[in-house]
Structures are given as C-alpha cells and as structure tokens.
Design brief:
Elements: H1 2-12, H2 16-36, H3 40-43, H4 49-79
Helix pairs in contact: 1-2, 1-4, 2-4
Length: 80
Amino acid sequence: MNVVAGILIGWFNETWIARILACLVWGICWCIYYSLSGKLKNRMNSLTILQTYSVEYLTAATTSLILSLIVGLIKVIFFK
C-alpha cells in the first residue's frame, strides 16, 4: 500500500513541499490503519508499542516519499 500511496502522492501533488508533507501525513494514516487492522498484536511479542509504531511510520513515510519524489520528477521532466 505504501508503494501505491507514493505513486499517487507523486502524481496528484503539484509542488515538492506538498509531496513531502503528504508522505509524512501518509505515515500517520498508515499507523492508524495498522492499529485498526489487528496486525499490532502479531508484532507485540518482540517490540514495544513505541518501537512498533516508529518502525511502521518510518517505513511508510520513507517508502512513499521515495516513490513520490521519483514519480514527481518523471512528471516534471516528461509531462510539463
């Protein structure tokens, strides 16, 4: 889901700052989804709650950020 979010963020946002901020917000949305989906119970055996959410937030934000910047760069170079 983070890959799809990064591609969509990169395509639909026009400015670079909007792409970056949207990825940071996506990390929060991913943590909310993660906690509501019940996947948190599987990871609680080896990590604390703060560690689990930190890992999930950084993974979601970083993955979507990298892909959104790549897609945004492609959009700027080839479609404008």
